[in-house]
């Protein structure tokens, strides 16, 4: 659709950026914090461990002051479960509560709205020992953690996100170091979708509890949504795209919003004897969630073609790389899209298409909780980072958000990845996303000083003009 006049971004649009605790904080076992799955996993070869990261635990004041200088209206960060409850359940760690109180208060001091992700890839290691999300009790563990957060921070935090990228946890757990399977598991698919089911129930109950305990707050899910294109106009490729859209995207949002399993996914799981078991009360619990908005991460679209099931297809992939499921779909590299230095496709127009599709399916306001470009940034001798490529990437994506708004989609905010440089999920420190450069290398911690990148100054102007001026 060509618009003669574009609609403006809403006046209260939440411009900001995102991080997650295990990637940015460091201090991973300090002040009583327990280990999470990220602290005990084997890190990918050649990449840093997660002990120091960007050291935000000790430098949150400086980081938040820089965010304020950029004019942030919101900061999306996650609360590390093991900082609050070192063993996942049981004793609360007062130092953990104190830390997040400080972070929240520091944000509010500058008028920055804290947007809290309750769970970002960091299951307490002690709970993995107890069976992780395979254990039915995980629903209660998570609900207890949610309650502690609502009690301690609910007087100030108005926006909550439940589980970051539950679809990535389910589809790419081994890549990000989160999948924990019980010994002797014979049907891996069933086990993974049972875990997924427990997360879905936990999420719905946490949303209902939020509404009960914090009537003024808003809560929503935060999946990674990538609209899936068919590789051609062949009818079978279109079916394949529908299959992958269901498995990758709609399962999570159909459940969060309507409390029902996507029928295509359910039928596929039935074929593999992998449907999850419902405990008593799950059906009602799943319907009781009612998110107030949808948070979603978008990096690019996916493309796939038909797969007749005769050969094994690769199911191993990271968050954004084409994958396959025998007899359902097969990943396809879209020849129309450029890629980043790390091989992820770049598709700003697909952003608009993804937003349009989500809005027509769910009719809820949406906030972008991640979007961004991972690149090898270079700090010059005079302390600059000329990341014009990131400005280009973000500009093109913000333009598409405005087009989607002009299409009639309700958008609440834009929080790209990431506020500050941090450790990537599986590609280390060299894959930088931030507006703020952190002076460290993969294994050399250097000064950890902060530097404003060119994108910092550019984003500051974008925010100051409420998205009207996207020029350099
Ligand atoms: C998302 C995650 O999948 O993508 C983040 O929510 C992650 O945790 C981001 O860092 C970018 O991915 P990566 O693999 O480049 O760090």
From TrEMBL:
GO process annotations (BP): carbohydrate catabolic process
Coiled coil: none
Entry-linked SUPFAM superfamilies: (Trans)glycosidases
Superkingdom field: Bacteria
Cellular component terms (Gene Ontology): cytosol
Active-site residue numbers: 370
Alphabetized UniProt keyword annotations: Glycosidase, Hydrolase
GO molecular function, one term: beta-glucosidase activity
Family: Belongs to the glycosyl hydrolase 1 family.
Protein name according to UniProt: 6-phospho-beta-glucosidase
The species this protein was found in: Longibaculum muris
